[in-house]
Amino acid sequence: MFPQNFLWGGATAANQIEGAYNVDGKGLSIQDVMPDGLQTPPTEGPTDDNLKLEAIDFYHRYAEDIALFGEMGFKTFRFSIAWSRIFPRGDEDEPNEEGLRFYDRVLDELEKYGIEPLVTLSHYETPLAIAREYGGWSNREVINFFEKYCRTVFERYKGRVHYWLTFNEINSVLHFPFFGGLEGTPEEVGPQKLYQAVHHELVGSARVTKIAHEIDPNNKVGCMIIAVPRYPLTPNPQDALKALDKSHDDLAFGDIHCRGYYPGYYLRKLKNLGVELDITEQDRDDLTNTVDFVSFSYYMSVCETADPAKDTAGQGNIVGGVPNPTLVASEWGWQIDPVGLRIIMNEYWDRWQKPLFIVENGLGAKDKLVDGPEGPTVEDDYRIDYLNQHLVQVGEAVEDGVEVLGYTTWGCIDLVSASTAQMSKRYGFIYVDRDDDGSGTLDRYKKKSFDWYKEVIATNGESLTK
């Protein structure tokens, strides 16, 4: 079912696991002023209620955690480099050596267990100075800052990292502008500034893709987008047209990364919004540096309708859409749709003909630590069932002819949620003893799903239950 070289593993982000927000020269990132995730506007500075400031202390416990990933048999581990750990403000001339050394040590441990690094260059952690003093990605100068940062880590880790992702869920900035360093809601920011920032991110992504290939021809660079199948709520053609239009908002980012130019439907959208992008000839040339593969996150699907009376967002539909009456939802309202993963994989493969990499998929749930025969554990059969169903559909997509590089579950170890900044929204195979109020020992415990995933990897998916 799965290719012999399939990269099984798990995924994390620096701001959700590392902690040590002001240690060894690290500067502030936008996450350090987002104590409630997406729930409230950013604060002026770090506050005591921001769990991400300590997170799960991966900065000091990385060896212990990577040993557990090695025990599970991980073939790959996705993590991000914190830009503000390398360039504390984002605009310095010289990098912070202590920050670079930290990731040297992480790579040392991964190499010890034969785990391939999969590194995200920008995972919702723009340096705060870039946001507050430069206006985030709406400022063209930020492309140069990003280029310098990426060139620094490409050269430092040449030969040690072969798989790179540029921006995590790059299409998310349309919904959450502060991820791109823009203060305010999409409506407050306005389409002109928002889409100019998107353009600068796309140019930056393409430019560093070229640099990565120049520094090491063995480097493989991927884009990373939120994958959300959008179904018409009814057979009404207007609902189908609405679903197509909303899907285009996401597909545009893959189209540009894979084809090297703006598609016609996207240009029409910009025209309808009254947006006139500042695009230079150098920008157009940069965009032709296309990615080697397409990576994406997948958690849910949604429905779309043109009927205003039915267009009511569900609890967990943070990227729009309306609930699908045929599906059940997680505790956080995210509708569970394993077949949607197979559908989106086929769509992406047919559309772009580039290898796919599923770099986020998982179930956030309120786990309960209980006593087991070998110590504290979590009986998370619900997580096993969720992941099993989705992986079966990945196998079906492989049988359909889709080329898939690998699969990394989101939050392979419990971490601070990006959307809610909670610890109680747990995803991992490894329970971390920390609560939403910040209390806890930070001790690690294996959940039932730990051994289940270990068996899945050992059998290359043969142990999955159809």
TrEMBL record:
The active site is at E360 (nucleophile). GO terms for molecular function: beta-glucosidase activity. The keyword Secreted does not apply. InterPro entries: GH, GH_1_N_CS, Glyco_hydro_1, Glyco_hydro_1_AS. PROSITE patterns: GLYCOSYL_HYDROL_F1_1 (PS00572), GLYCOSYL_HYDROL_F1_2 (PS00653). Belongs to the glycosyl hydrolase 1 family. Keywords: Glycosidase, Hydrolase. Signal peptide: none annotated. One of its GO terms (biological process) is carbohydrate catabolic process. The lineage of its organism: Bacteria, Bacillati, Actinomycetota, Actinomycetes, Mycobacteriales. This is Glycoside hydrolase family 1 protein. GO terms for cellular component: cytosol.
